[in-house]
Amino acid sequence: PLQDVEPRLRRLGVKPFGICGDKAHTLASFARQRQLPFVLLADVTGEISQLYGLRDTRAGQIRPGFVLINRQGIVRMALLGQALPYDDMLGLVESAVTSPH
After folding, report:
1. How far is CA 44 from the centre of its chain?
2. CB 12 within 8 A of CB 5
3. Disulfide: which of 39, 64, 77, 79 matches 68 by Cβ 3.0-4.6 Å?
4. What's this model's pTM, rounded to 2 decimal places?
């Protein structure tokens, strides 16, 4: 579904990345087969997901979530432990990107 909203994100100057617990070669093959217009990043150890509060250490898995980071590396928005419908996510991104502060 992220494929469907990616063109709208791109027009806003937003570059989406998917972060998954799979190995890099698995993700590269998956992205190539589906011709994904965004990058999938491998987080096999879960370190990056844990950094953003998306790793469930009890279950040992990455939870769904959404983090919007600006070009300066500042987290503008974080929704942890939930998967949003993409239209809702797009609305939040549009609001965050177009608001003056």
Report:
1. 16
2. no
3. 77
4. 0.72
Query: How deeply is 9 buried, as exposed, middle or buried, from its count of CB atoms within 10 A (0-12, 13-18, 19+)?
Result: buried
Q: What is the mean pLDDT of residues 76-99?
A: 81
Query: 97, 36, 35, 99: which is closest to 69 by C-alpha?
Result: 97
Using the CB atoms, write b or e for 53-78: b if 16+ within 10 Å: ebbeeeeeebeebbbbeeeeeeeeee
The more confident residue out of 36 and 66 is 36
Note the pLDDT of residue 1: 66
